[in-house]
């Protein structure tokens, strides 16, 4: 069975960027079709990314806070952890409610949702292969919001004990010994969860610091605070081989802090980044340029080289953040509706929901120096903060980067509890 639909705007992908673009375009009076390959809207973020990870991080925080209070005169008994109940709560009460809510908002705005895998067949048509047959969508304007996928390393064998971020969020079990391969935001957040649940977690990172995108002095505070949490933090080190045996995963390391010989783990989380899905949508059929890595270059109006086709979110480049995609979505939808709007990437904050949290916005001190900017840096240690002292969390600090001549703020960073909220 084949169907045909004509629309003013088609959005390919229903993650935070995709559904935000669809909803904004509909609010502006445009006829909108939203294509999603899965049965639920929300993309990676709502289903197997940002949202379920925050749910599990909440569990981890409660466990950690209860443990830490013993030093302040309040002692709790040993918690009983029911993984099945945690999974049910995460999937039904958190993810389920949010995806249902997104579906309801689409219906309320009369956004037509087409389920199936969409690919361009021309610069005016997308073919959607669905369970009930194919649908051809003819459009005036398109917004590509096809997201990204996890990076797989060629030397990592296929084994149920080797998981990516999606597998980590399934929380099938809590291993005895766990290796997190990649010391970026995703790896550290999941490492925090599994550590709080009782796993002995080690982290290996190829760069010379954790969270390589943030300033070293900020990350240093996080690293120092978390040395007791992790069994080991191996910086400037990489994994070169994994031997999957019946009794465990035997890992060979190489680099500055590599342990000698093989080290055995029960589970490995591979969190070495994500790759854009630009090559998976037949963009060439529409004449849209996609680079060798899968990224799509856009203007500050989010237009591709084909003026009536826009792209937003992970597929247009860093930072790969849901809130960045949402802002881009609003810009693209408003430009299509005839409004004047451009995207300004310098105001997009980045947050690691670790313990303590790390947040930064604008240029980092390292970037400012690389650009030759004449700057001054101000630091406020939380050891001088009454609130931090009262909370027994004085490890943090606040940092601002100024242009020396004008005093204009160019960037800032915070490391400490609730840093992401500030």
Oligomer: single chain
Radius of gyration: 23 Å
The helix content is 25-40%
3D shape: globular
Write down the overall mean pLDDT.
97
Q: Structural class, judged by helices and strands?
A: alpha/beta
**Contiguous helical run count:** 10
Top CATH class of the largest domain = Alpha Beta
The structural domain count equals: 3
| Name of the CATH architecture of the largest domain | 3-Layer(bba) Sandwich
The total count of strands amounts to 22
Q: Report strand %.
A: 25-35%
CATH topology of the largest domain: FAD/NAD(P)-binding domain
Q: Cα distance, first to last residue?
A: 52 Å
Low-confidence stretches: none
How would you describe what is shown here?
This protein has 422 residues and is α/β, with parallel strands linked by helices. It folds into three domains: 2-150 and 275-346, 3-Layer(bba) Sandwich (FAD/NAD(P)-binding domain); 162-272, 3-Layer(bba) Sandwich (FAD/NAD(P)-binding domain); 356-421, Enolase-like, domain 1 (2-Layer Sandwich). The protein is built from ten helices and 22 strands. It has helices at residues 16-27, 43-48, 50-68, 83-108, 165-170, 185-196, 216-226, 322-336, 365-370, 386-390, and strands at residues 2-12, 32-36, 112-115, 117-120, 125-130, 133-144, 148-150, 162-163, 177-181, 200-204, 232-234, 237-245, 248-255, 262-265, 267-270, 274-276, 309-311, 350-352, 357-362, 375-381, 397-403, 409-416. The strands form five sheets. Strands 1, 2, 3, 4, 5, 6 and 17 form a seven-stranded mixed β-sheet that branches. A five-stranded parallel β-sheet has the order 8-15-9-10-11. It is globular, with a radius of gyration of 23 Å.
């Amino acid at each position: 069975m084949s169907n045909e639909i004509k629309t003013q705007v088609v959005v390919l992908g229903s993650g935070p960027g995709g559904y935000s673009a669809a909803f904004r375009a509909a609010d502006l009076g445009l006829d909108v079709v939203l294509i999603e390959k899965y049965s639920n809207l929300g993309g990676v973020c709502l289903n197997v990314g940002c949202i379920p990870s925050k749910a599990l991080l909440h569990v981890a925080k409660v466990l950690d806070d209860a443990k830490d209070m013993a030093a302040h005169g309040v002692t709790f008994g040993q918690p009983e952890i029911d993984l099945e109940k945690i999974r049910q709560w995460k999937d039904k009460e958190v993810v389920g409610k949010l995806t249902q809510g997104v579906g309801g908002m689409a219906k309320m705005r009369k956004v037509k949702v087409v389920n199936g895998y969409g690919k361009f067949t021309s610069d005016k048509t997308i073919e959607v292969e669905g369970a009930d047959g194919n649908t051809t969508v003819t459009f005036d304007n398109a917004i590509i919001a096809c997201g990204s996928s996890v990076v797989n390393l060629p030397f990592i064998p296929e084994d149920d004990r080797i998981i990516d971020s999606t597998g980590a969020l399934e929380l099938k079990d809590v291993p005895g010994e766990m290796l997190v391969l990649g010391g970026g935001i995703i790896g550290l957040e999941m490492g925090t969860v599994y550590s709080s649940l009782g796993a002995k977690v080690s982290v290996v990172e190829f760069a010379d610091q954790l969270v390589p995108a943030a300033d070293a002095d900020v990350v240093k505070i996080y690293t120092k605070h978390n040395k007791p949490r992790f069994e080991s933090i191996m910086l400037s080190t990489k994994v070169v081989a994994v031997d999957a045996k019946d009794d465990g995963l035997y890992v060979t390391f190489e680099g500055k802090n590599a342990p000698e010989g093989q080290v055995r783990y029960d589970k490995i989380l591979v969190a070495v980044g994500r790759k854009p899905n630009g090559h998976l949508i037949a963009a060439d059929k529409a004449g849209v340029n996609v680079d060798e890595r899968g990224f799509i270059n856009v203007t500050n109006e989010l237009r591709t080289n084909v003026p009536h086709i826009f792209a937003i979110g992970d597929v247009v480049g860093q930072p790969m953040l849901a809130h960045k995609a949402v802002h881009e979505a609003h810009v693209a939808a408003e430009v299509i509706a005839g409004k004047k709007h451009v995207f300004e990437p310098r105001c997009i904050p980045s947050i690691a929901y670790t313990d303590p949290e790390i947040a930064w916005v604008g240029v980092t001190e390292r970037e400012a120096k690389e650009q030759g900017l004449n700057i001054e840096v101000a630091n406020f240690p939380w050891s001088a903060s009454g609130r931090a002292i009262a909370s027994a969390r004085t490890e943090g600090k606040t940092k601002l980067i100024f242009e020396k001549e004008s005093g204009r703020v160019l960037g800032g960073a915070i490391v400490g509890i609730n840093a992401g909220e500030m």
